[in-house]
Amino acid sequence: MTTATEVTRDKTAPTIDADDEQARMVAEHLLAAAPAGEETVCVSQATLAATTGLSPRTLRRVLDRLLEAGWITVTVAATPNMPATYDLSRLRELGIMPASQPAPAAGAPAGGVRVLSEAEARSPLGNVVPGERVMVEPGLLEAGPNIRRACGWMSASPRRSRRWEC
C-alpha cells in the first residue's frame, strides 16, 4: 500500500534522450528561476519561452516531455491569472544544475544597473549589450526627443511664487 506522499514511477514512462538539448535547457532554466533552496517554482510559460529563446508552442511540447518522463511535476495547475507551479525535486536528484546566470558587468551594483563611463556613454556601440540596464550621468546627455528630464515645482526663493520647470 502506498501513502499519499510516496511517489511511484511507471517503468514504462517515456525517457528523455541524452541529446535532447531543449529538455535539458528548459530544466536548467526552471531550476535557475527557483528561489534558492526551494523545490518548487512558479513561473509563466511566457517567461520560460523568453529566457530559453524557444517559441511558446515548442516550450509547451518540451514541458510535456519533461512531465511525461517524470522530471518535473505540476503541483499547482495554471489558471488564467496565475502560472503553474512546478516541483523540481526530481531534476535535483538527476544532478541537473541551474542555467548559469550571466556574470554582472564590472562596476554593476547589486541591482544589476551599471553606470556607463564617459567613453561608453559617448560611444555605446560595442560597449552596451542589448537588453542591459544602464545609467548615464545627466551631464553627458544631449538634448533630444529621447531624453527625459526631471520636472517639478521649483522656487528660486521663499518669497517668490513656485513655478513648473523641466
Automatic annotation (TrEMBL):
Pfam families: HTH_24. It comes from the Bacteria. InterPro entries: WH-like_DNA-bd_sf (IPR036388), WH_DNA-bd_sf (IPR036390). This is IclR helix-turn-helix domain-containing protein.
